[in-house]
Design goal:
Radius of gyration: 16 Å
Helix content: 25-40%
Mean pLDDT: 83
Shape: globular
Largest sheet: 4 strands, parallel
Order of helices and strands: HEHEEHEEEH
Strand content: 15-25%
Number of helices: 4
Distance between the termini: 23 Å
Number of strands: 6
Strand order of the largest sheet: 1-2-3-4
Amino acid sequence: ALWLVANKVAPADKIATIGTSHGGEVAIEHDQAGGGNVVLAGAVAYYPGCDRGFPFARYPLLLLAGEKDMTDGPRQSVAATCQDYARQANSHKGTAEVRAVSYPNGPHSFDVPGVKLQVSQSLNKSIAGYDKASADASMKEIEAFLRKNLRIGEG
């Protein structure tokens, strides 16, 4: 982001990042340490590890996760962990809004067409696979998030 701003490719308030899985964690953690040189307009994280905790980012964050995603282990779904993260972040002063959206039928990789449903033998639960309804709904969330935070359509 710093390169984009320094080379006048884009102003910081028009830069957003999106990541999936570990890339979603990177989207969350980009600014957590407070060492980020550029405050982004926002970040979107698909099924990230949301258990990274404090400090929280200075920019708006959209977390998208499936309730059938058990890739973090048997304790709770990735969606539940992201809901917990959002509650903690939103109650912390100086943190930008964090919105966590969960999809009841969404496993890990629910947005990737062609990924076959995978079941964890040890957990006896689905953990990864494509779910069209979750994928379609998530795209609507992203569109609304980007319109709001990048102020698309404003003069």
